[in-house]
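User:
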Amino acid sequence: MSESTLYPVLLAAWLVLAAGVSPLLFLFTAPYGRHVRQGWGPALPDHLGWVIMEAPAALAFALLFALGPYRDSPVSWAFLGLWEAHYLHRAFVYPWTRRSRSRPMPLAIVGMGFFFNVVNAYLNGRYLFALSGGYPLTWLRDLRFLAGTALFLAGLAVNRQSDHILRSLRRPGENGYRIPHGGLYRWVSCPNYLGEIAEWTGWALATWSLPGLAFAVWTTANLAPRAWAHHRWYREHFPDYPPERKALLPGLW
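Assistant: Predicted structure:
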């Protein structure tokens, strides 16, 4: 089967799968981080799991850029810069800053994350750097690109700030949890997830592409249920948890 036939089939299946994942994740919380539990077989240290899961997204996307016919395009460089601003940090910096990096992560979770990132990087990178036919230079001043990039960068800033607040709650060697305060934690339990959803919604807008939309749908389908699980966990473990705080959307949910 040629790529021109396979690619749209894979993309359609990817979108359908994303729509089906979210209801399942509201019923079943993936067993890593604070939700880790026994019975999931072999495991790796948390930080190594994150590197193995996230590195393919950074590396495969860069490879598709380098091998694509539009690598000299300023628009391609802009897309590469946005993507790698997230994934180089997520793959090679973030795992080593986690206070819980010695906690186990099941190999099954690592494998699923690895698979997701390979497919997602292929769908986005192959489209942007080859199958799209190339973006004109004028795209850099198109309102969709400008608004999407602004939303992406705002989400990235919220995500990084929120992760920093979480890290600052623990002293070296501590493993327990505390109630986070500051930033958007004033209103929601998981502003880091809200920031990441904003990032990839901005990406979908900036690229104006079906693969970008699929990524935004996947991000929301994965992180909205996990935000709800975190919110419920905080309420169960901290009797003094702020009652006005929502799970993900300030004042709404």
